[in-house]
């Protein structure tokens, strides 16, 4: 992105520039405030919070709340901490993201390079699935999962998220592959490569940017999902549901420091994904829109 | 029956027919160029030979085997694409041997074939690079290498030079011609550039509107175009075509047309059969190089007609000077020697090589034949 600073559309003077930076800095501070409050309070004993000063830095620094949130906090009736639920989330999110991304790539490949009668209608229907609210499908989905014998299990959750994700991943890959030169596919056909050989050897190796977009999008959505987790999780509920159970418990002392630590724990994986792959996100979304 | 037979090949998309009953028999070792303006169906025809487009009706056969429904990879053809279509994630070596790999050729054999092709095209030093690190001309070579390594029956070229700059295009053109002479393979080559068509081909098919307008050797096409389209499409600057009348004087047919001042001039035809058109309108076609200064006229011609006319514009082009004038109510271009004394607006004595003049029927635009 360093190139962009030397290639702005409008030349800006020193005064304007200072103003812009000050302005942006203020907004950044404003948006970072909640994170600061969460971090600061997760690192102090409960007594310091109940004294009433939420904005202050801890007087006594402690990791106790983090340890408690992770391994011994009361979630529902069991004092297990968030750890088993974190594991559930991982077990759900990894296959769901992988499967929906691969299927989206295959769909995009077929919809752009192996076109058939009615392909745009099919694509339109797939797109339509992006606009169906989660709540509408809860009951039919519960019935389907029950019939398949997947109710209340991690494979069931994976299935739900894959089905819901395909619309988005297909959209990403279709638009990305639409800009992919068809002559390459034709050359590979003449060279004797088959349907999957072209996909694996020619298309996938250059799909990096859009795969990153798809993974970030799917990971964030599936990790943060609460509704499907709460509805279909059963004995294998994901992190988000557990966090809710931790924070919303109506008995006992409200351990705000533990709640803050738990909330940060729940947000960490998505943050990590954004930090590692975030710069590809914008790049991937814009790919193909401008030649070169 | 030829080596590659295109018999009555038609292509239609729904009700729209884009290629009408094309009939071409290509002999082994021939270099056939399909030339025509955009949308004339030349690339469609090539893609049909390659198997990338279906044949609506008619047959395409290689060595007597009808390949209408044969998969592209099983037709034993190789294609060089306009965009080169090199696989961006593979090295040059992988690009060239990908087809062999897909056809299950053993590794040792692939390496040998790669070496041969790399040497032939002088790309040995590029084998480990990715296409993104190559110049346009180098990519072009790699694309040709990918075709050559397969050792196919027929090579198909789809405007392979149109992405190169002018100088490189001329170099690569010569290179392709050399390759053809050396290897003697059958080539079908699509281009919209009539100079490429003239220089490379052993035969040209000029296409327009989904029809083959004329199929013949470059000399046939240039000297005896079947119709006005072929006449004006081939050659640069284009052939001058102007309305005229046939007038028989002393038993010999002449073309009568108006000069820049509106005065009628008579130019004697070399073709006696035009006497049958006495008094009728024709379209007179004269190539720019047949309108010269008197000293630059073709000494071998039996029929140089003088024409005094006013010069419109002069365009010195280095080797020649082009002169524009009004003839028959149209702008006509003549090609003078570079040092001919011509000046805009002055009267000048031109020499017209009427041996090369062609008369077209103004209704059908077809050449009037004996």
From TrEMBL, chain A:
<dbReference type="GO" id="GO:0005886">
    <property type="term" value="C:plasma membrane"/>
</dbReference>
<feature type="transmembrane region" description="Helical">
    <location>
        <begin position="198"/>
        <end position="219"/>
    </location>
</feature>
<protein>
    <submittedName>
        <fullName>ABC transporter permease subunit</fullName>
    </submittedName>
</protein>
<keyword id="KW-0472">Membrane</keyword>
<feature type="transmembrane region" description="Helical">
    <location>
        <begin position="157"/>
        <end position="177"/>
    </location>
</feature>
<feature type="transmembrane region" description="Helical">
    <location>
        <begin position="121"/>
        <end position="145"/>
    </location>
</feature>
<dbReference type="InterPro" id="IPR035906">
    <property type="entry name" value="MetI-like_sf"/>
</dbReference>
<feature type="transmembrane region" description="Helical">
    <location>
        <begin position="85"/>
        <end position="109"/>
    </location>
</feature>
<keyword id="KW-1133">Transmembrane helix</keyword>
<keyword id="KW-0812">Transmembrane</keyword>
<dbReference type="Pfam" id="PF00528">
    <property type="entry name" value="BPD_transp_1"/>
</dbReference>
<keyword id="KW-0813">Transport</keyword>
<feature type="transmembrane region" description="Helical">
    <location>
        <begin position="260"/>
        <end position="282"/>
    </location>
</feature>
<comment type="similarity">
    <text>Belongs to the binding-protein-dependent transport system permease family.</text>
</comment>
<feature type="transmembrane region" description="Helical">
    <location>
        <begin position="20"/>
        <end position="40"/>
    </location>
</feature>
<dbReference type="InterPro" id="IPR000515">
    <property type="entry name" value="MetI-like"/>
</dbReference>
<feature type="domain" description="ABC transmembrane type-1">
    <location>
        <begin position="86"/>
        <end position="277"/>
    </location>
</feature>
<dbReference type="GO" id="GO:0055085">
    <property type="term" value="P:transmembrane transport"/>
</dbReference>
UniProtKB/TrEMBL annotation, chain B:
<dbReference type="Pfam" id="PF00005">
    <property type="entry name" value="ABC_tran"/>
</dbReference>
<dbReference type="InterPro" id="IPR015855">
    <property type="entry name" value="ABC_transpr_MalK-like"/>
</dbReference>
<dbReference type="InterPro" id="IPR027417">
    <property type="entry name" value="P-loop_NTPase"/>
</dbReference>
<dbReference type="InterPro" id="IPR047641">
    <property type="entry name" value="ABC_transpr_MalK/UgpC-like"/>
</dbReference>
<dbReference type="InterPro" id="IPR017871">
    <property type="entry name" value="ABC_transporter-like_CS"/>
</dbReference>
<keyword id="KW-0067">ATP-binding</keyword>
<dbReference type="InterPro" id="IPR040582">
    <property type="entry name" value="OB_MalK-like"/>
</dbReference>
<dbReference type="Pfam" id="PF17912">
    <property type="entry name" value="OB_MalK"/>
</dbReference>
<dbReference type="GO" id="GO:0016887">
    <property type="term" value="F:ATP hydrolysis activity"/>
</dbReference>
<dbReference type="InterPro" id="IPR003439">
    <property type="entry name" value="ABC_transporter-like_ATP-bd"/>
</dbReference>
<comment type="similarity">
    <text>Belongs to the ABC transporter superfamily.</text>
</comment>
<dbReference type="GO" id="GO:0005524">
    <property type="term" value="F:ATP binding"/>
</dbReference>
<dbReference type="GO" id="GO:0055052">
    <property type="term" value="C:ATP-binding cassette (ABC) transporter complex, substrate-binding subunit-containing"/>
</dbReference>
<dbReference type="InterPro" id="IPR008995">
    <property type="entry name" value="Mo/tungstate-bd_C_term_dom"/>
</dbReference>
<feature type="domain" description="ABC transporter">
    <location>
        <begin position="4"/>
        <end position="234"/>
    </location>
</feature>
<protein>
    <submittedName>
        <fullName>sn-glycerol-3-phosphate ABC transporter ATP-binding protein UgpC</fullName>
    </submittedName>
</protein>
<keyword id="KW-0547">Nucleotide-binding</keyword>
<dbReference type="InterPro" id="IPR012340">
    <property type="entry name" value="NA-bd_OB-fold"/>
</dbReference>
<dbReference type="InterPro" id="IPR003593">
    <property type="entry name" value="AAA+_ATPase"/>
</dbReference>
<dbReference type="GO" id="GO:0140359">
    <property type="term" value="F:ABC-type transporter activity"/>
</dbReference>
<dbReference type="GO" id="GO:0008643">
    <property type="term" value="P:carbohydrate transport"/>
</dbReference>
<keyword id="KW-0813">Transport</keyword>
């Amino acid at each position: 992105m360093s190139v962009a600073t030397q290639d702005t559309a409008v030349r800006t003077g020193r005064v304007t520039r200072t103003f812009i930076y000050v302005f942006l800095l203020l907004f950044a501070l404003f948006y970072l405030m909640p994170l600061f409050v969460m971090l600061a309070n997760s690192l102090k004993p409960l007594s310091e919070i109940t004294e009433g000063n939420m904005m202050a830095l801890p007087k006594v620094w402690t990791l106790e709340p983090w340890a408690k949130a992770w391994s011994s906090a009361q979630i529902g009736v069991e004092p297990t901490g968030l750890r088993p639920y974190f594991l559930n989330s991982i077990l759900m999110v990894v296959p769901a993201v992988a499967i929906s991304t691969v299927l989206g790539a295959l769909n995009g490949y077929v919809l752009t390079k192996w076109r058939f009668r009615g392909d745009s209608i099919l694509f339109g229907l797939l797109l339509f699935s992006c606009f169906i609210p989660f709540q509408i499908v809860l009951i039919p989905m519960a019935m389907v999962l029950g019939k398949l014998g997947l109710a209340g299990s991690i494979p069931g959750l994976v299935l739900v998220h894959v089905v819901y994700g395909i619309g988005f991943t297909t959209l990403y890959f279709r638009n990305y592959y639409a800009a992919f030169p068809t002559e390459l596919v034709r050359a590979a056909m003449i060279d004797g490569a088959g349907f999957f050989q072209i996909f694996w050897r020619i298309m996938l190796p250059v799909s990096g940017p859009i795969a990153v977009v798809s993974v970030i999008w799917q990971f964030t959505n599936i990790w943060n999902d609460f509704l499907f987790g709460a509805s279909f999780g059963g004995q294998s509920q994901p992190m988000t549901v557990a966090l809710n159970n931790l924070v919303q418990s109506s008995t006992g002392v409200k351990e705000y420091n533990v709640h803050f630590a738990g909330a940060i724990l729940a947000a960490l994986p998505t943050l990590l994904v954004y930090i590692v792959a975030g710069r590809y996100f914008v790049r991937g979304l814009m790919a193909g829109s401008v030649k070169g | 029956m030829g080596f590659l037979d295109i018999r009555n090949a038609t292509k239609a998309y729904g009700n729209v027919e884009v290629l009408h009953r094309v009939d071409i028999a290509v002999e082994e070792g021939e270099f056939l160029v399909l030339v025509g303006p955009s949308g004339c169906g030349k690339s469609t025809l090539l893609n049909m030979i390659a198997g990338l487009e279906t044949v609506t009706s008619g047959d395409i056969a290689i060595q007597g085997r009808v390949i209408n429904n044969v998969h592209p990879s099983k037709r034993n053809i190789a294609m060089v694409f306009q965009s080169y279509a090199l696989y961006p994630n593979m090295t040059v070596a992988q690009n060239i041997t990908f087809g062999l790999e897909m056809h299950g050729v053993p590794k040792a054999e692939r390496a040998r074939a790669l070496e041969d092709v790399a040497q032939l095209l002088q790309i040995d030093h590029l084998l480990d690079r990715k296409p993104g690190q190559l110049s346009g001309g180098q990519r072009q070579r790699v694309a040709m290498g990918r075709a050559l390594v397969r050792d196919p029956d027929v090579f198909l070229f789809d405007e392979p030079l149109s992405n190169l700059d002018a100088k490189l295009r001329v170099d690569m053109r010569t290179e392709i011609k050399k390759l053809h002479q050396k290897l003697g393979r059958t080539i079908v080559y699509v281009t919209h550039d009539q100079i490429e068509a003239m220089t490379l081909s052993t035969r040209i098919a000029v296409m327009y509107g989904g029809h083959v307008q004329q199929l013949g050797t470059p000399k046939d096409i240039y000297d005896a175009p079947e119709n006005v389209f072929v006449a004006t499409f081939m050659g640069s600057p284009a052939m001058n075509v102007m309305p005229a009348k046939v007038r028989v004087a002393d038993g010999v047919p002449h073309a009568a047309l108006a000069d820049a001042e509106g005065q009628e001039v008579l130019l004697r035809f070399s073709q006696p059969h035009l006497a049958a058109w006495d008094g009728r309108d024709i379209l007179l076609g004269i190539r720019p190089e047949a309108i010269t200064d008197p000293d630059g006229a073709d000494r071998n011609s039996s029929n140089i007609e003088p024409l005094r006319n006013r010069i419109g514009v002069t365009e010195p082009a280095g080797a020649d000077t082009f002169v524009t004038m009004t003839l028959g109510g149209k702008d006509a271009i003549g090609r003078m020697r570079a040092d001919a004394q011509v000046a805009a607006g002055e009267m000048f004595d031109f020499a017209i090589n009427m041996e090369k003049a062609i008369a077209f029927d103004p209704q059908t635009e077809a050449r009037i034949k004996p």
